[in-house]
User: What shape does this take?
Amino acid sequence: MKIYFKELLLRTQQRRELIDITLDVEKVVRESSISNGLCLIFVPHATAAIVLNEHERGLLNDIMRKISEMYPDNGGWDHNRIDDNAAAHLASTFIGPATFMPVKEGKLIRGTWQNIFLVELDGPRPTRKVVVEVIGE
Ligand code: ZN
Assistant: This one.
């Protein structure tokens, strides 16, 4: 079994945004030379998340709107007493920091309308890391 590890470094530009990292992840899978296995996509931050879905402008707006509705900034959150970003932590907690995707014959298996996004929830940040680890043979 082989393990191939790579960190993507991304700059975010808005408070909340979705950044399509599909091409970057597919490049890591190619570099890994692993034919069959799993690809972990993990964000090592408490105020960001990873999601899979269609890259269509209207849908991206809808996703961000739903996140804002579910985790409003002014929710009376306790964490805002020490750090004004409880909504970002909550969204990260419940959306989740990682996903696994299957790798088969050297390619990620994903649906036609299933791109990979970093979800920035407390930006802008000069550097956000995304760990991509391919495990297999
Ligand atoms: Zn905080």
